Amino acid sequence: MDEFLKISYLLSPLLVGLAFHGVCIKFGWLRFLSWPIDAGKTLRGERLFGTNKTYRGVIAVALGTAVGAGFQDLFHHFGRQM
């Protein structure tokens, strides 16, 4: 159980990033970044990264993960002071 909590703590900023990306999709935020990463290029008739892989996803997950890591850092330092 202890290892599960440690791994959950380690991955929690990524979860915040993924949640932020979902919110961006739902409300249409960062829509100007929703163009495909592969720019429509294909390999053997298939898109390189698929239709739904956009720069909005990369940026939104990165921003959300950075915010989640910032909160985690605050919680870490706050817990150390108690």
What's the SSE blueprint?
Layout: H1 2-27, E1 42-43, E2 46-47, H2 55-81
Antiparallel strand pairs: 1-2
Helix pairs in contact: 1-2
Please tell me about this protein's structure.
The structure is a single chain. α1 packs across α2. It is elongated and about 55 Å long. The protein has one domain (12-81). It is mainly α and 82 residues long. It has a two-stranded antiparallel sheet. The chain is built from two helices and two strands; from the N terminus they run αββα.
What is the number of helices? 2
Spatial order of the strands forming the largest sheet: 1-2
Helix content: 55-70%
SSE succession: HEEH
- What is the number of E strands? 2
- The number of domains: 1
Q: Main beta sheet: strand number and arrangement?
A: 2 strands, antiparallel
Termini separation comes to 24 Å
The proportion of strand residues reads under 5%
What is the mean predicted local confidence, pLDDT? 93
Low-confidence stretches: none
Which properties best describe this structure?
single chain, 82 residues, mainly alpha, two-stranded antiparallel ribbon, 2 helices, 2 strands, 65% helix
In short:
By secondary structure, the chain is mainly α.
